[in-house]
Amino acid sequence: MKENGENENAISTFILKISRKLRDRYLSGLAEDKADPSPMKTTWYCPLDLSTVVEEEEDGVIYTVVVKQQHSAPNSPMSAISRSQCLKAGTEEKLVLHLLHSFSLGDSSFITIFLSTYRSFTTTKRVLDILTDRLEHPPGDGERSQTRQSFNKAVCTVFSTWLSEYPEDFNSLGEPSRLLRLAPLLPQDSSSAADLRARLLRIAEELSEKALLPDAHKDQTGFTSPPPDASKFEPTSILGFPAALIAEQLTKIETELFVRLVPYHCLGSLWSQRDKKGREGVCWSVRATIRQFNKLANSVLASCLWPTKLRTQQRARLLEKWISVAEECRARKNFSSLYAIVSALQSNPIHRLRKTWQDTDREAVRRYEELSEIFSDKDNYSQSRELLKEEGTSKFANLDNRLNNKHLNRSTAQGTVPYLGIFLTDLTMLDTAVKDRLDNGYINFDKRRREFEVLAQIRLLQSSCKNCVFTADEAFMQWYQSVPTLREEESYRLSNEIEAPGEPSPRGLTPTVIITQCSDLSTSRTSLVGDSDSLFDFPSPVNNLLSKLTKHMRSPSVSCLDVDTSPPTNESTPATLTPSTPTKSHRRSASCGNNPPNNIQGSGADMRIIRIRMDLHDGNLYRSILVTSNDKTPTVISSALEKHNQDPKQASRYELIQLLPEGKELVIPATGNVFYAMTSSSVDFLLRRKGGNTPLGSQPISTETSATFPRIKAKGRRLVRTLF
Questions:
Q1: Which of 148-152, 547-551, 621-625 is most confident?
Q2: How many CA within 13 A on the CB side of residue 213?
Q3: Which terms does the record give in the GO molecular function aspect (predicted)?
Q4: What is the pLDDT of residues 178-205, one digit of tens each?
Q5: Element (H or E) spanning 8, and its range?
Q6: Alpha helices in 508-594 (DSSP H)
Q7: How far is residue 454's CA from residue 267's CA, in Å, rounded to a whole number?
Q8: For residue 591, what are the contacts with CB-CB under 8 A and spacing of at least 6?
Q9: In angstroms, rounded to a whole number, what is the distance separating the alpha carbons of residues 161 and 485?
């Protein structure tokens, strides 16, 4: 410790000498300029602010150290020197113990960031064990020493923040032994410590009761309600509700779900593991949001398609009603419901109804197209991000004068309900692109700081929604709950009954495929759509990283990252719109689809995120891989095998195949550069054992034609789609 102190003094003395020399030279230069006669004399005052950023490695931890020396008065012999240490990486134990020393070292944000992200690399039980061990051997010579007082204050700060922000961590421990061991070790000399002790003992008592009487604490709301009776569903009843009332009720549902959202459930490391065995209950707050999104989209589909005997003009009124509801959701800054309605209207079963769209009011169609543009993928979805940046914490939506006059009297100040997929994508991309650990095995805490920037945006928007007050409308909620769930094949059957296939569609806006399924917490295979890049224009490393990644991944869908895409049977077809992978009948929208960029060699770092699945018999699980311009086929195959928990040394036994639209396949050369060999028409890849059977319907194409084949066929496919 003495040597470290001597080194710090030597560094400070060295910096002080340099600053004084620079100051003397600077002042002498000014004196020479003054001595030189000139018709115009300009004196520049430049106070010196020298900052030194270095990395210091101690036993099990790496700090980023910032030493600042600010020049004081010219005649002052001393200069102000400040030093702060931010933890960059370290072992699990050192990261946890840094909670108790972060404030004294100038790392003031560490506690908040750690508590928001620690579940990515450790567990609550492990953190409590490390902290309790430290409390058993506190620093300082006695209770009254300055060191002990500072330590006790840090302990109270850590546990007070933890209990206030994340009480569920303690309630989910399962048994009270850790809390009973911790409570007596808390400081004895403050009222805040006494309050903490009482809260911990109260939680320990509740855990004991649950352990002794488990049946008394079971969730009585866990039962599943019977499916709605389709014979009692009245699709046209939606016309009897004002659009403003429908939007208000939808905003009520979405706001309540968003406020209950646990931000760390969106972390890529947790979200990508949601389908593993034994983790069915994780990320429950995200799953609830997905189910609501799918339910609303299904309601739009069912109400527009179910009454097959309606006249064309009557069905057009249903489209106009939902367009009006979408506009009201926009006025209430409910972007989640807005996106669900627009996606449903862009889905193929509704999009293809040529006669119905022809009879729809032109002004309503124009408004619908304007709303669709909010989610355009142009410039990395810049329009939707700009709206969230402008209206994130504002009282009202930023509408034009006509809409303001229309909504001003009936719209109260409300929070913003964002489309959650935007955050899921950002965090998943971060988790994929940034390593969890350094080469020496230390946990990369800089990655957690970047993730926290996204989580902080979620919490900021949540704070704007907490004071919103709504009144439930029983009549609408009864109708909303009575909507039956349409399977994919049912929606197409109903659409074909309304208008026979084969007639051209007049719509210029191509249909989209957005919705994914989350039927329940135990068997769901979920995915969600979102925009890439960050929500606000904060000058942060996260935005810089995501902007580079999204140049090569214009995908708003988290479904391209670690989702189960096992082909469903007719008996188990999801009860929502469609999966987000392109199929013959569901094509993607230019405004909301998952279209890769045409130029994958754009400016900036050459990288793309692709998704690879293995050709397995028990279902296919996609894993995301970051591919750079330097990656050869064996490297990508090895990474994919490792992500699928296979032996990466077996890479020579596999071949990498790009899955193209219309069932085509492109075999990547065994020693080729994957980044330049792949086409821009798809980010889906298959890892297949060499000599394996080619799936039915697949037609591999040679690598010689890979560069031109998609471009040659693209125009032809567009012509075919217009005849659908």
A1: 148-152
A2: 6
A3: guanyl-nucleotide exchange factor activity
A4: 999 999 999 987 788 899 999 999 999 9
A5: helix 2-35
A6: 541-550
A7: 9
A8: 346, 372, 373, 375, 376, 377, 509, 512
A9: 43
Closest C-alpha among 398, 410, 233, 261 to residue 336: 261
Nearest to 306 by CA among 360, 235, 356, 239: 235
User: Which of 289, 291, 296 minimizes the C-alpha distance to 266?
Assistant: 289
pLDDT at residue 471 is higher than 50: yes
Tally Cβ neighbours within 10 Å of residue 435.
9
CA angle 104, 105, 111 (to 5 degrees): 80
Report how far residue 170's alpha carbon sits from residue 89's, in angstroms, rounded to the nearest whole number.
26
Place of tokens 């001595």: 35
Q: What is the DSSP string of 242-253?
A: -HHHHHHHHHHH
**How high is the pLDDT of residue 713?**
37
Query: Which strand (E) or helix (H) includes residue 49?
Result: strand 49-58
How much is the pLDDT for 268? 87
**Residues in contact with 128: Cβ distance below 8 Å, sequence separation at least 6, in sequence order:** 178, 179, 182
Terminal-to-terminal C-alpha distance of the chain:
77
CA-to-CA distance for 660 and 626, rounded, in angstroms? Answer: 19
Residue tagged 């208000």 (tokens): 248
* CA 280 – CA 527 distance, rounded (Å): 14
| DSSP three-state, residue 709 | helix
User: How many CB atoms lie under 10 A from the CB of residue 649?
Assistant: 10
Which token pair is 625? 């891989």
The answer to whether 371 and 330 have CB atoms below 8 angstroms apart is yes
Based on its alpha-carbon atoms, the radius of gyration of the chain, rounded to whole angstroms, reads 30
Cα separation, 488 vs 574, whole angstroms: 7
Do the Cβ atoms of 332 and 247 come closer than 8 Å?
Answer: yes
Which residues sit opposite 688 in a β-bridge?
A: 655
The C-alpha atoms of residue 481 and residue 39 are separated, in whole angstroms, by 84
Q: Which two tokens stand for residue 590?
A: 């230019």
Distance of CA 353 to the CA centre of its chain: 34
What is the value of pTM for the model shown? Answer: 0.65
What is the Cα–Cα distance from 248 to 17, expressed in whole angstroms? 67
According to DSSP H, which parts of 440-565 are helical? 445-465, 474-482, 488-498, 541-550
DSSP per-residue codes, 331-376 = HTTBHHHHHHHHHHHHSHHHHT-HHHHHTS-HHHHHHHHHHHHTT-
Largest CA distance in the chain: 99
Residues 188, 197: contact at Cβ < 8 Å? no
- pLDDT tens digits, 145-154: 888 889 999 9
Tokens of 621: 């699980």
Q: How far apart, in whole angstroms, are the C-alpha atoms of residue 186 and residue 196?
A: 8
Q: For the chain, how many helices (H) and strands (E)? A: 26, 10
Report residue 656: phi and psi, to 5°: -100, 125
Q: How far apart are CA 323 and CA 371, in angstroms?
A: 9
Whose tokens are 């352990």? That residue is 211
Cβ-contact 460, 392 below 8 angstroms = yes
CA 586 vs CA 344, 348, 352, 432: distances in Å: 12, 6, 11, 28
